[in-house]
From TrEMBL:
<comment type="similarity">
    <text>Belongs to the histone deacetylase family.</text>
</comment>
<feature type="domain" description="Histone deacetylase">
    <location>
        <begin position="18"/>
        <end position="287"/>
    </location>
</feature>
<dbReference type="GO" id="GO:0040029">
    <property type="term" value="P:epigenetic regulation of gene expression"/>
</dbReference>
<dbReference type="GO" id="GO:0004407">
    <property type="term" value="F:histone deacetylase activity"/>
</dbReference>
<dbReference type="InterPro" id="IPR000286">
    <property type="entry name" value="HDACs"/>
</dbReference>
<dbReference type="Pfam" id="PF00850">
    <property type="entry name" value="Hist_deacetyl"/>
</dbReference>
<dbReference type="InterPro" id="IPR044150">
    <property type="entry name" value="HDAC_classIV"/>
</dbReference>
<dbReference type="InterPro" id="IPR023696">
    <property type="entry name" value="Ureohydrolase_dom_sf"/>
</dbReference>
<protein>
    <submittedName>
        <fullName>Histone deacetylase</fullName>
    </submittedName>
</protein>
<dbReference type="GO" id="GO:0016787">
    <property type="term" value="F:hydrolase activity"/>
</dbReference>
<dbReference type="InterPro" id="IPR023801">
    <property type="entry name" value="His_deacetylse_dom"/>
</dbReference>
<dbReference type="InterPro" id="IPR037138">
    <property type="entry name" value="His_deacetylse_dom_sf"/>
</dbReference>
<keyword id="KW-0378">Hydrolase</keyword>
């Protein structure tokens, strides 16, 4: 059975006019339930993570500043959210959802998180709507527990996973692969183990050709025993913050390709949703829902 991390706190309301589409975290589970892709049994509410698991990736000073809401105003502006105790709890539960999901994936092949993909969170600061790097935290957790040795992070959000790249820049046991829009934020990129900058305006053909050429060879070379997949839908032509021209169908093909490889090679995969900022919320929901539909069809 597919397991999906979701907690009511995910839909934390932001001030009116904020550009981040927080409502998608409530509407996506509703859509999956309504259409019969999922039942209530597919969802689990993540607990709170241990401090030990967080500071295995983030500095204790940064973690304490978040928990105590003592982060300075400049650093808070870089994150992009008006900080609160509830918002910090939300980020912690998202990270734990990815941890618990990765454990489930070890036994059943795949697990997903309705939220997550917070790849702009660095070891000592947050930015770009990201405070704690959920997949980095879960990757370290798996290694600490001895559940995985070599991990591959496949980041297909339209924005480079700069925080993830920085966290693991000197760690050969976790390979960071980011395929992103060349002209997109962050404008000062970090160095992933493999960065593929897709030219602005590229559509399905260019995007999928690059991915299908690169990913199988990368997996063959790295031989990971676990994969984290960040399936951002901000590669869509309708996305307000992206500069690529992929269609919903192209995004669907991307997800089916990645998940299909994981299934065929018997490599456990945890999926976090990442970004999506199209003007119409129904476009975001449809593109994200396709990822869950693909997971059900391919794995179960």
């Amino acid at each position: 059975m597919l397991k999906i991390a979701y907690h009511p706190i995910y839909k934390y309301p932001l001030p009116k006019g904020h550009r981040f589409p927080m409502e998608k975290y409530e509407l996506l589970p509703q859509q999956l339930l309504h259409e019969g892709t999922c039942t209530s049994e597919n969802f689990f509410a993540p607990k709170m993570p241990s401090e030990e698991d967080i500071i295995a990736v983030h500095t204790s000073e940064y973690f304490e500043s978040l928990i105590n809401l003592t982060i300075d105003k400049k650093a808070a502006r870089k994150i992009g959210f008006p900080l609160s105790e509830t918002l910090v709890e939300r980020e912690l539960r998202i990270a734990q959802g990815t941890i618990e999901g990765s454990e489930y994936a070890l036994k059943h092949g795949i697990a997903m998180n309705i939220a997550g993909g917070t790849h702009h969170a660095y070891a000592n600061h947050g930015e770009g709507f990201c405070m704690l790097n959920d997949q980095a935290i879960a990757a370290r957790y798996l290694q600490k527990k001895g559940f995985a040795k070599k991990i591959l992070i496949v980041d297909l959000d339209v924005h480079q996973g700069n925080g993830t790249a920085e966290i693991f820049e000197n760690d050969d046991s976790i390979f960071t692969f980011s395929m992103h829009g060349a002209g997109n934020y962050p404008f000062k990129k970090e160095k992933s183990d493999l960065d593929i900058a897709v030219p602005d305006g590229s559509g399905d053909e260019v995007y999928l050709q690059k991915l299908t050429e690169i990913l199988p060879k990368l997996i063959e070379k790295q031989q990971p025993d676990f994969i984290f997949y960040l399936s951002g839908v901000d590669i869509l032509e309708t996305d307000k913050l992206g500069r690529l021209n992929c269609t919903v169908e192209g995004c669907k093909k991307r997800d089916r390709f990645v998940l299909g490889i994981c299934k065929d090679l018997n490599i456990p995969v945890q999926v976090s949703m990442g970004g999506g900022y199209s003007p119409e919320i129904k476009t975001i929901i449809e593109a994200h829902a396709n990822t869950f539909r693909a997971a059900q069809e391919i794995f179960f």
